[in-house]
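Exercise 3.2. Students should predict the tertiary structure of the chain below and write it as structure tokens, then compare their answer with the key that follows.

Predict this chain's 3D structure.
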Amino acid sequence: MDIIESLKEKLNDKGWRLTGQREIIYLVFQDLPKGSHLSAEEVCDYLRQRGQKISLSTIYRNLKLLVRMGLLRELEFAEKRKQYELKTGSTIHHHIVCVQCNHTVEFEDNLITQQSLKQTQETGMKLVDCQLIAYTICPEALKMGWPAPLPDNWMCSRCVISKQVEQAQVDEKVKLRVVFKGERVALYVPEELNTSDSFREKAKSIKGWRYCRDDFGWYYPLDRAVEALNILHQGYDTEPELEDAIALIKQRHAEYVSKFGWHN
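Answer key:
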């Protein structure tokens, strides 16, 4: 099942709608490298850098909802600073955090989970999540004289390298994303393409195009989506892979023709 369709189904089951903002915020975490954590402010900056303007209050509200749905985890690594990560699989992991530079290391320990589950069951409650955060000081902070005050923006070398690697991984993941929207296919492209006059001219040359200002997606009918994808991907990686995306579009179009007896 498509990521967005799965998200829509989970929200609908609980009586909520899949709004453009919820979709965009959730996809931020889907696109991040494994082990990445973002605060609401960082999500806001991430989206603004990509030309998507969503207010910080809207981001806070939807992050809370996605946590309540069990799709994200809420973490508090520093005082009054919550961060969020994608909740994947059934394995629960924990964190070691430097309180000076916020460098974070993930680890797993089934004994912690088992003990938490045992204590929860004995009280008649249901375990929703289990988090152990070990607050530490990294060796470089100690050498710098901690607990004496250090510059607010100081980070140890491991933290700097980790952030550089994460940013490189995010940059590598710049893709043209293909998302099915009922009888249409939405194409989401990197900001540098979306602001290009030549690209927009090509995007509008394909019959049946629509541009959505809410989610910055280019929408095409199923019978034009393959043409659009071939013209617009321009050497960018696609998600799913180009051949898989084309096969899925053709399959979805055939299903609609068979079910409804029409060609859009």
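Discussion points: The mean pLDDT is 82. The radius of gyration is 22 Å.
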